[in-house]
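Give me C-alpha cells for this 432-residue protein.
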Amino acid sequence: MEFNQHYTQKQTQKQQFIPNLVQGMEMLQLNRMELDTYLNRVMLGNPFIDMNLADPLKISSKKLSHNDLSHIIEQTSVYEASLHDFLHEQIYLLYRDTPLRQLMFWWVDQLDERGYVTKNLDEAKAETNASQIELLDSLTLLQQLDPAGIGARSIQECLMIQTERMDFAPEIAYLVLEEHYDELIQKKWSVIAEDYGVSLSDIEDVYSFIQRLSLSPAEHYESRSKATPYIIPELMVDLNDGQLVVAETRYKTPLLTLNVAYLDEMKAVDDKEVQTYVRTKKQEFDQLQASLMKRKDTILKVGTAILMHQQDFFLDPNNHLKPLQLNDLAQLCQLSESTISRTVRDTFVQTPRGVFELRSFLSRRMEGFNQSKDEVMEHVKQLIADEDKHKPLSDQKLEHLLKEKGMTVSRRAIANYRKQLQIPSSTDRKIK
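Here you go.
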C-alpha cells in the first residue's frame, strides 16, 4: 500500500496527509511496548477509539519451536548501545574504509547531547589537517544517517536536513527554511508569501510541518537508552519440513476499533462545531489504522527479506551469516535506506537459535572479498586458538595470515574484533 496512491496535488488534501506520514515514520521507530504507550496517549484525546491488545495465545505458528510460551515471548533486559555506537554501526555498514569515513568518525566524536556538532570548519581543519572540502563532504555523509537531523550545526540546519529527507514535505518548505527561517519563526508569513507568490495558507502549512520535526535529534534515542528495555519479538521463525517459515507474532499487538455507537450518537447532534470535531476524530482513527498497517507490512517485508537471505544460518548451526548491507536490503525491498534502518533497530525476531535483533543479521561486506565480518571474526578466533601460546600471534601477524587467506583486514580492525571476542592482546596471552 503506497501512502500517496489516492491523493491529488490539492493543498487541502496534502495538509491532512502530512501528519499521517510523519506519524507512520514515528510508529516505525517504536517497539511494541512504546507503541502501546503512544496509542494510549492518543486515545486520551479521542473518545471514539478503543484499543485491545492481542491475546498472547493467538501467536500464529503451525509448529512452535519451544513448548513453553515464555520461551517464545522473551521479556528480557537488553543492552542499549549509545548514540555514538549506533552511528558507528551505520558508518561501518554503509561506507568503506576511506579517509572520508575516518573523518565521519571524527565528526561523531564532536556531537553534543542533542546531536549537534560542536566544532566549526576552521577548528575541524586545525585538528584533522583535512581540507575544507573533505570536512564538508564527510559531515554531509554523517548528516544522512539516522536519527534524522544528526550532525547539524544549528537548529535551522537540523530542520532543513529533516525536511530534505521527507518526500511528503510541502514543496517550498526547504526553500523557506533556507531563505526565510527568521521570518518563518517570527510568523511574518505575509512577507514570505509575497516573496514566493504563494498564499498565506501555504506558509502556514510549512510552519505546521516543521512543528512536528525534532529540534534535538539525539533526544529520542537517548531517552530510550535510559529506560529499561525489554525484548518482545515482532516476528518469529520456524523450521517446517526443512523450510523457513516467517510469521508475525501477536503478543501485545495493538488492535484499534471505532466506537461506532458513540460516533453515530455524536453525528446526530445538530451543531457545526460538534460535526467538525467528529470528522476530525474519525479521520485521526483512519490515519492511525493506516499507519499501523504500514508499520506491520514494512516490518514483515523487511524481516522476511533478511531472514530468507540468511536462511542457511538457521538450517545449519555451522553456517555463518552472509554479507548483507543496508543498501542491498533497500534495493531488495524497494525501500529507502533510512526506512530500513528504522525498521531493523529494536525489532526482534524469535528463532530456533534464540532471540535476535533484525539489525544483527546485517553485516559489512569486507574489502576485496565476499565474506562477512562474522566469518572474519571466526577466522581470527580460530587462528588465536591454534597459536603457540609461548609465541602468540600479534595483530600485525594476524593481519598477514588473514591476507594469505584472501582477507584484507586492517590491524586496527583485527584489534577491534579481538576486543569484541573478549580476547586479550598477544602480550597478555603469552605463557611465560
